[in-house]
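A.,

Following up on our hallway conversation. Structure tokens first:
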């Protein structure tokens, strides 16, 4: 498996190649997961509209990691963040998921979340798996794929 320092080096090389100035790339491993945080004054160039550029950067780095490791090591979850953008996004998603799970339980109905990326859906599934009162599943195709929160009666 590619070590975290190697991933950090790959990120720094990509930033150099695309000409984005940055103050550093920090590896953080805490309760919210493994992430590589890029500090830059040019965050708009790395985040893009609606986070699309950042999603592409995450995909590239995950492909690089997958090519450098054994099959069982490829599943380690991590993400790249720029100036706390992803961290704030996941915090917002967690808050929405919590409210919608409570709504699903009180109404005893299925509640659909807005469409989100595969990584965001996985985040919601993992977060709500701790709540015995609900279960989750994904529904839809492509960009319209979303999480459905179902009340467990």
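Then the amino acids I'd put at each of the 153 positions:
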């Amino acid at each position: 498996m590619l070590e975290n320092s190697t991933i950090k080096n790959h990120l720094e090389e990509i930033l150099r190649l695309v000409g984005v100035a940055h103050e550093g790339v920090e590896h953080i491993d805490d309760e919210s997961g493994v992430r590589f945080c890029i500090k830059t004054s040019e965050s708009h160039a790395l985040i893009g509209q609606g986070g699309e550029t950042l999603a592409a950067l995450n995909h590239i780095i995950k492909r690089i990691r997958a090519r450098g490791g054994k099959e069982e090591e490829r599943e380690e979850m991590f993400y790249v963040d720029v100036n706390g953008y992803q961290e704030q996004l996941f915090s917002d998603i967690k808050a929405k998921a919590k409210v919608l799970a409570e709504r699903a339980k009180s109404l005893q109905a299925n509640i659909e979340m807005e469409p989100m990326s595969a990584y965001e859906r996985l985040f919601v599934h993992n977060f709500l798996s701790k709540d015995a009162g609900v279960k989750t599943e994904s529904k839809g195709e492509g960009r319209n794929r979303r999480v459905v929160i179902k009340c467990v009666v």
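Strands lie at 24-30, 33-39, 78-82, 111-112, 134-139, 146-151. Curious whether your intuition agrees with the design.

B.
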